[in-house]
Amino acid sequence: MRDVAVVGFAQRQMKEFDGSPTCVELLVPVFRECYEQTGFTRKDIGFWCSGSSDYLAGRSFSFVSAVDAIGALPPVNESHVEMDAAWALYEAWLKIQTGEVDTALVYGFGKASAGVLRRTLALQLDPYTMTPLWPDTVSLAGLQARLGMDEGRWDEAAMASVVARSMADAEDNPDAVRKGARSVEELLSAPMYADPLRKHDCAPVTDGAAAIVLAAGDRAREACERPAWITGLAHHVDPLHLGSRPLTTSPSASRAASAAGVDGVEVTELHAPFSHQELVLRDALRLGPDVRVNPSGGALAANPMFTAGLSRIGEAARRIWQGDADRTLGHATSGPLLQQNLVCTMGATT
Amino acid sequence: MTTTAPTKQRAAVVGVGQTHHRAKRQDVSMAGLCREAIDRALADAGMTFDDIDAVIVGKAPDLFEGVMMPELFLAEALGAAGKPLLRVHTAGSVGGSTAIVAASLVQSGVHRRVLTVAYEKQSESNAMWALSVPVPFVMPVHAGAGGYFAPHVRSYIRRSGAPTHIGAIVAAKDRNNALKNPFAHLHNEGTTVESVLASQMLWDPIRYDETCPSSDGACALVIADDDTARGSVSPAWIHATAMRSEPTTAAERDQVNPQAGREAAASLWKQAGVTDPRRDIDCAEIYVPFSWFEPMWLENLGFADEGEGWQLTEKGVTALDGDLPVNMSGGVLSSNPIGASGMLRFAEAALQVRGQAGEHQVDRARRALGHAYGGGSQFFAMWVVGADRPD
Predict the structure, then answer these.
(1) Cβ contact (<8 Å) for A240 and B6?
(2) The whole model's pTM is what?
(3) Which of B212, B275, B306, B317 is deepest in the core (most CB within 10 A)?
(4) How sure is the predictor about B388, in pLDDT bands with cuts at 50, 70 and 90?
(5) CA nearest to B375 within chain A
(6) Domains in chain A: how many in total?
(7) B62 contacts in A (CB within 8 Å)?
(8) Tens digit of pLDDT for each residue in A197-242?
(9) Are A95 and A143 in a shared domain?
């Protein structure tokens, strides 16, 4: 395999973006920031790949308009996944591994505020047996949280401590849309939202866009002083149907972690849109107590749909660039209740 | 990981499957439709789901069925649960780009045997509605794709000076080829140039018989590594793949002969070692949803000089017994499950070089092109497959 590194990362996230659902107005400055970080220009990028959802944008072919952000001619070598952009990063990494290209720019975008997100996401369920009941995301997560409590896997205090740590860490993250240190006691005194979930247990509805630059070998070294070399990258999916998979563990996350290799990881960024899901993931990834989790505040601080997974990889890469850690992990999830999971491990050395 | 210089691994198509394409496949669910193609592809490859390392799904907009990211609920039925699953969506070219992504999983050395499936079940929703959601500052496609592309065809006719019956020659040819393909949606006996010219004008100059149908259907491929393919009876070796995109609205775009298509083709021929596609390619499955796109793409792909593609059509060069047969399967004009349409082109190219195209087999087809395009003629995906294992 070729040595490939994350060498650029930029993001914009906000509660409500006052612009088009294709977020092309956000992508242009995000790309510019990536060019500034890496010294690359449009011409240096060998492959482009994006992740987004037509249903979020409420229109077919929403990614078609986003291509405008790349610029007009000449044409580009480009692809798109209808998934979180973390999986676009996977496709781009493959493309670099084939030897066809040495660099890639991966981007994602989503304007979750354009509709009622928890209702829109009910359209991800089985259209014949589940969607007609319109079980929304928050209600499903509530059932999952309750199941874990009944099994004795976690309790409300454990969930609240995830929130307390995330909100305190988010104070240092200029891109966080929700932040503010509060004690576990304070959090537990908040009213129920979807019992046993309180509002702070659920990721805020977030709009945004993000981009990552990948480069191989010397191209990475020229673009970044301390590249975040990808040491493992794997993803797996579980069955969707809630009766056909365990909901308080995550087999696909465990499998992805085993394939990517998590030994020696110091910092992880987990994509857990609900507090108890972080507990599921920490278990599934077998993270020891010394591992620092979500220094950015994680998805509870900002969860731009279809980019939050990519951003976790970007945040984890940044820790290596800054010299805060030698080995980090970014995780992305997709589908209802952690159905699909991707793990990307990175290191200061290859 | 090591720092060794990259070498692309060989990959080949070792299994091909498709559904019977129809306007409404109400006898099957989405999962059942996909399984019909997958089961045929796995049987063709002599494999089961246990042999498959990863699954790649492609389809056009989710609004075409009314399900957001349907691969999530399909994961189990597609044999993807417990494995990596990717969902590709690149507009009309998606069937082609999905096959290319699946190939890259093997070419990168990450996996050995990959299953890819592309489908559209248009009868679940309404494509015209799905394409007509009002978007500020964007021209709606209320008249359907034909209304969008008719001006491009008119421009082509004006620029090339082509006689106005060329489109009808293409339509009659493809509809007759479809009679030899048991999977094709349309089996319109007795289609002639005259009958096409006598059909209703829909979007001048595109007549009813010069347009693709709206179909339910799926296509699946098994793509395998060098070792697996060498043990297979008749692999279709992947000699080259290319994808290129350009924005819809760039003022300097040539929508009749798009630069993205020309550059994708140039890259493709270079990778495949093809110096003269007209001579080196034995047959081609080209994405032709409206008849006139045959001569337009013949030029865009470099099979003919600009303005001269129609002459190949007129002289019968692109007929099944011509020296560059085009759309042997009956093409998009005879079956159009949108998300699968690109993969069907790629699959037909593979069937031809494997000698398994049945009644629409081209004699001694050793090297074939599969081609797909999408959006407003702005997304291109193509591959060359061959009977010979590449060096």
Answers:
(1) no
(2) 0.97
(3) B212
(4) very high
(5) A64
(6) 2
(7) 53-55, 82
(8) 999 999 999 999 999 999 999 999 999 999 999 999 999 999 999 9
(9) no
